[in-house]
Amino acid sequence: MLGVERVPLSLDQSLQSMHQHICGTLENRYVHQATPFFAGLAVAAAALAGRYGIHAWQAFKARQPTPRIRKFYEGGFQPTMTRREAALILGVRFLSIHDRENATPDKVKEAHKKVMVANHPDAGGSHYLASKINEAKDVMLGKTKGSGSAF
């Protein structure tokens, strides 16, 4: 050290200077070591989030599509069949008792035939369901007031 004059320090000043030097060096060392640690932690978190996102997307794409057109009636049959329930069984529109335009006899008969072909006892269908389908046709055509099922 050329041209710099060193002044002798007292013992307290010397210890204090060493303490500041050592603590400052350790603090800098910890700061310099912490930066790569936190950067690695951020990269690992981003990788895990990306992996989770990819798995969630693949699970979303693999699931079965849900039909949004029509929701089927959930629940059993009512003790006495109503026109609403008969319309649900046959799949025809029924708005009210006074509005027969939506459920014409031709539409009811055609719907009955389609549903009966799919559920006929000779083709492996249930006798109970066949009787309910026939009852629904009779209720929609006004032949009975309901509960004409043999079951």
Give structural notes:
By secondary structure, the chain is mainly α. The protein has two domains: 11-61; 83-141, Orthogonal Bundle (Helix Hairpins). The chain is built from four helices and no strands. The chain starts with 10 loop residues before the first helix and ends in a 10-residue tail after the last helix. The mean pLDDT is 77.
Task: Give the number of helices.
Answer: 4
How would you characterize the largest beta sheet?
Answer: none
Radius of gyration: 41 Å
CATH class of the largest domain: Mainly Alpha
**Overall 3D form:** rod-shaped
Question: Which structural class is indicated by helix and strand composition?
Answer: mainly alpha
**Helical amount among residues, as a percent range?**
55-70%
Q: What is the total tally of β strands? A: 0
CATH superfamily of the largest domain: DnaJ domain
Overall domain count: 2
Mean pLDDT: 77
- Looking at how many chains there are and whether they match, the oligomeric state comes to single chain
Beta percentage is under 5%
Give the ordered list of helices and strands.
HHHH
Function: Component of the PAM complex, a complex required for the translocation of transit peptide-containing proteins from the inner membrane into the mitochondrial matrix in an ATP-dependent manner.
Keywords: Membrane, Mitochondrion, Mitochondrion inner membrane, Transmembrane, Transmembrane helix
InterPro entries: J_dom_sf (IPR036869)
Main location: mitochondrion
